[in-house]
User: Fold these one by one.
Assistant:
Number 1:
Amino acid sequence: NGDAFVAEWGDLVNNLGTGHIVKFVHFGSKHISVGTFATGLVHPIAVAVSPSGSLLIADWGTGIVWRVFR
C-alpha cells in the first residue's frame, strides 16, 4: 500500500550492535514514520511480498526464510 519494509543486515566492522532488524517505513501525506518491525534476526538480507500477500524475510545468517502472515 505504498509503505516499505527494510532489512538491516547488521554491523560487522566495529561491533556497535546495529542492524539485525527489519524496519517498517510508512509514507504519510505530510511525514514519514519509521519503526522496528522484527528483531532477533542474524543477518536479514531481503524482504518480499509473496503472491498470497504474506511478508517474506530472508535471514542469511540462519538460512531461514520467515513468512509473516497477513
Number 2:
Amino acid sequence: MIRFENVTKRFGAKTVLDDVSYEIEKGETFVIVGTSGAGKSVSLRHMIRLLTPDAGRVWVGDDCVNEAGGAELERILGRFGVLFQSGALLQWLNVEDNVCLPLRQKSKRSDEDIRKRAGEMLALVGLEGVGAKMPDNISGGMRKRVGLARAIVTQPEIILYDEPTSGLDPVISRQIDLLIDDLRRRLGVTSVVVTHDLYSALYVGTRVAMLHKGKFAVCAPPEEFIASRHPVVRDFLQAQGIAGLQDVRKAFGK
C-alpha cells in the first residue's frame, strides 16, 4: 500500500535516509523505531509530502507522492489521517470544533451532520461528552485522543502516528496503545507508527523496523524482532528492560 523505492534524504552533510526501500501492506501496523535523529519522523513526513526525497520515490498504491501535484496530490493526501506528536489542536476552538475541522474544510455536509460525526468519533476514542471543553482544560492524554478523533473523522484508509505516547505517563501511554490497536481492528485501517517506545512498538506492531545510520537494521514481526542478534536492537531492548514478549504483555496486563 505504501512503498519506499530507493529513497535518500540528506540535511546538509548528514544522510538521514540512505537508499531505503520497504513496503507497508494494507491493513497492517508498521512501526518505525530508532534513536533520536535516526530518521523516524522524516520517513513519516515523506508519506504526506511534508518532505520530498533527494533521490527515489514514495508510492501510495499506484500513486507516486513526490511526483504528484495539485488535485492529484490532494486526492492522495485525502487517504491519510495524521496524529501529530503534540496533538496539534487549535487552542481557540473547543474539542468538538477541532474534530469537526477536517470535514468543514473537505466536505459539503451539513453542520448538524458534521457535529454528529464528530460526536461519534469522540465516543469511539472514549471522550463522549467532552466536546464543549477547550484544549487547555483537558489532560495531555485526552488531547492525544482528541487529535486521534480528528485524524479519523474523514474515514481515512491510512493513519500516521508521530510519537503517539510521547510526553505521557506509562499508564496513559498504554491506554493510547490499546486504542491504536483497537482502531486498527475495528476500522480496518493501515497504520504507520513512529516511536522510541519499544513496549508500544512490540504491542501494536505487526512489523517493527529499526532505523540505524539511514537504513533499516531489522524489519520483522515482534517475535523475530526480539530474537534479533543485531547489536543495536539488543541495546535498545536491554535499555528498556525487554527480554521477551512476556515483558511486553505484562506491561499491558495480558
Number 3:
Amino acid sequence: MNRKEENPIYDFERLKRFLESRGCRVGDAIAYRPIESGDFDPNDLRNNIEFTGEGIFLKTPEGDIQQIFLYKRDYHLKYGKPPRYHICKCSTIQNFIDRGLFDKEYRRANTESVKVRNMDNGYREVIVSNLPLCQNCVDVLKGYSNMSS
C-alpha cells in the first residue's frame, strides 16, 4: 500500500528508542493522523487491513493509509495490567485470525490513550494509556531486524 507523504504530527521517538533498545531496526516515521479506538468490521481484515514487515496498516474510509496498532477490546483491569498492544502480525494476532475471532476481540488505534471495556466493572468503557508492547511482536520484529542486518 502506498502511504501518503506528510509531515508527522507525532514522531513516536520513545517507541522508536524502546524498539531499538530491544534490537529492532526502526526506519523513519511516516505521517500519522489520530485514529481513535475503534472496533473492526468483519470485512476489514480482507479489505482494509494490511500486515507488512513495517507494521499494520489501515485503509481509512477517506482512502488514506495509516499505521495502527491492535489491542484487546475487553480486558480485566482489576489488577492494573492493561492489555498489550500489537504492532505486527505476531502469533497472538494470527491465532485470533485463525479462530475467526479477530474482529470480535480486537480494536485498532494509533493514539496513546485507548478505550477498553473493563470486564471487572460491567464492561464499562474506560480510557487506558501506556499499553505494554506484546512480547511476541518484539520477537517478530527482532526476526525482521536480524534478517535485514
Number 4:
Amino acid sequence: PEPEPEPEPEPEPEPEPGFVPDQPANFVALDEIRSREGWTLQLVAGNRERTVLNVLERAPEDARLSYTLGERQGEPWFMLIFGEYPSREAAREGVEELPSVLGVAEPWVRSFDSY
C-alpha cells in the first residue's frame, strides 16, 4: 500500500496590522517610554488617538510633548506626556512650564517605569 501523503502545512496567519500613528514625529513606542529614567507629566489619556491629538495640536512645535500607545482593560490607551524630569519633585515643578494653550490644569506626575 502507498504511504499516506504528508498533510499540507497550515498557512501562517496574517500578522496583525501594526499601529501607524497620525503624528509620527511626536509618537514614542511604549517600550522606549518605559526604558527612560525619571519622571514625566501625563496630560491626557483615552481610547482614541484623537483624544491626545486634540491637545497635542494646540502646541505642535513643542518638543517636550509626545504620546504613546499602551493598553488598558484590553483596549488601546493613548497617553500624552510632557517633559522628562530627574525626580518627582522636579516633575511637580515642571507643571509651571506647561504651555497654557494646552488647557491642562492638573497633569498626573508619573515615573517612566510606571508605564
